[in-house]
Specification:
Blueprint (H helix, E strand, L loop, with lengths): L6 E4 L11 H5 L4 E4 L20 E2 L8 E3 L2 E16 L2 E8 L8 E4 L3 E8 L8 E3 L23 E6 L5 E6 L4 H6 L4 E6 L10 E10 L18 E4 L10 E4 L3 E8 L5 E5 L4 E6 L2 E2 L7 E2 L1 E4 L4 E7 L4 E7 L22 H10 L29 E4 L2 E5 L3 E7 L50 E4 L2 E4 L1
Parallel strand pairs: 3-13, 5-8, 7-12, 13-16, 15-26
Antiparallel strand pairs: 1-2, 4-5, 5-6, 8-10, 9-11, 11-12, 13-14, 16-22, 17-21, 17-23, 18-19, 18-20, 18-22, 23-26, 24-25, 27-28
Length: 459
């Protein structure tokens, strides 16, 4: 994890005189840009009301300035290049240099002003998903405002009325713009920093892309058949680990802006769903889970006590969502003898590899793939290939970490005798099938009984 922010700054925002006054135009705050795809350190509030900052997985928090009691932010809607994982980059649309855009953190009751400058080739808007605000600030093109044309800057002003977990995204040409990666997280902290307090608070969005192997730009008309499933526009093994200290109370906030639901599963711990789109769940209404299903457009905050040291998987439980491109429409070849056909194909394609005779594992295979794409299942752990991709990461829990230490601690050193091991020596004999007496058939009826391990079968 980076210990500093790699900010670039731009001050050349284009402003429509009809929308922003001359005085406002001279006072538009600079728009920070972020170029690094690694998780940035939490942004401690330099001014304004105090709060406990979040950590955006493979992302960052947008700085602001205080002006006359207003907390001012500047979002740039623009084309960006996002590294999905080492070896693959994508031409996306996003905010301030990245997709997703930076997380916005405010405090309940803040006076918030957001400048939005459009550097896209078409009009856009920003909808503040889940917020209570004046209708004219809701960001729905044609319904509550005109679209923000290329080169224009619009201003949104409102006071966040309730603490919770929110998102932002366009409400203009949504199919195109959201499929290109335009979205971001919004956190409204409570006025009392002690309320809902946890030791570590992580956030990320679920998003998906359809990018042909060897290509750079997503298909934007895809409805369901995506081939890259990502946490914050990163696919495993490009997704950073979630690092926690043993004994920490850990919160993970997840928003879903894909086209399908995602059952998110945590290994080694049970958790509680403590927050939803509508706010915080009362303690009396929570129940333990190890998997929570997050529907399209929903947000969930889960919390658990990090009591078990180790490297624990966190992933979507839909198996096709934990693999990368090139994994769809592959036939099942288990049990098919491909030796003869492989000889013939290899004469035409020397690098050809027969796959799937004994299963789908590809962890030990190395084969040529197109430029700018990712292997289906990849990622190396201390015991070999992890054979995962897409929506997968590792929660690393360690003893003795400092309170603000988010650096990757490396692989877990298992105490002696706590690893699964290879059985050696003579195996015990298999149990014999139980003897079952055949029942006498009913008079007048012909009955055939076959005795099996599961008991008699009547025909």
């Amino acid at each position: 994890m980076s210990s500093r922010r790699n900010f670039l700054f731009t001050s050349g925002a284009l402003v429509s005189a009809a929308l922003v006054s001359r005085a406002q135009a001279a006072a538009i705050p600079e728009a920070p840009l972020q170029s690094s795809a690694s998780t940035q350190a939490p942004l401690a509030p330099p001014n304004g009301r105090p709060y406990n900052p979040v950590v955006t997985l493979n992302g960052w928090t947008l700085p602001w300035r205080m002006k006359n009691g207003w907390k001012e932010f500047h979002l740039l809607a623009e084309p960006v290049v996002r590294e999905i994982a080492p070896g693959m980059k994508a031409n996306l649309w996003g905010y301030n240099g990245q997709s997703p855009g930076p997380t916005i953190e405010v405090v309940e009751g803040d006076k918030v002003r957001i400048f939005v400058t459009n550097k896209l080739p078409e009009h856009t808007s920003v909808h503040w998903h889940g917020q209570r605000l004046p209708n004219g600030m809701d960001g729905v093109t044609g319904l509550t405002q005109p679209g923000i044309k290329p080169g224009e800057t619009y201003v949104y002003e409102f006071v966040p009325k309730r603490p919770g977990t929110f998102m932002y995204h366009p409400h203009a040409d949504e199919m195109m713009q959201m499929a290109m990666g335009m979205m971001g997280f919004w956190i409204t902290h409570p006025k009392d920093p002690g309320q809902y307090r946890v030791d570590r608070d992580f956030v990320f969005l679920l998003n998906a892309y359809d990018i042909d192997p060897g290509s750079f730009t997503p298909k934007t008309s895809t409805m369901l058949d995506f081939n890259l499933w990502t946490f914050n526009s990163r696919a495993f093994p490009g997704i950073d680990s979630i690092v926690a200290r043993k004994g920490d109370r850990v919160r993970i906030r997840i928003g879903n802006l894909t086209m399908t639901n995602h059952p998110i599963h945590l290994h080694g711990h049970e958790f509680e769903v403590t927050g939803t789109d509508g706010g915080w769940v009362p303690k009396t209404a929570r129940w333990p889970e190890v998997t929570t299903d997050i529907a399209v457009g929903q947000m969930r905050a889960i919390e658990f006590d990090a009591n078990e040291p180790g490297d624990w998987a966190l992933h979507c439980h839909k198996s096709h969502h934990t693999m990368n491109a090139m994994g769809h429409n592959v036939p099942n070849m288990v049990g098919v003898d491909q030796r003869e056909i492989s000889k013939k194909i290899s004469q035409l394609i020397p690098d050809y590899m027969a796959m799937g005779e004994t299963g789908g594992s590809m962890g030990g295979m190395e084969m040529p793939i197109p430029d700018n794409t990712l292997p289906m299942m990849t990622g190396q752990g201390q015991f070999g290939s992890i054979e995962m991709g897409g929506m997968f990461t590792v929660v690393k829990i360690r003893e003795g970490l400092a309170h603000n230490d988010y650096k990757d601690p490396g692989w877990y050193k298992h105490p002696k005798g706590t690893n699964a091991f290879l059985a050696e020596g003579e195996m015990p004999p298999a149990p014999l099938a139980p003897k079952t007496a055949a029942k006498k058939p009913a008079q007048g009826k012909e009955v055939i009984l076959n005795v099996t391990r599961d008991g008699p079968m009547r025909h």
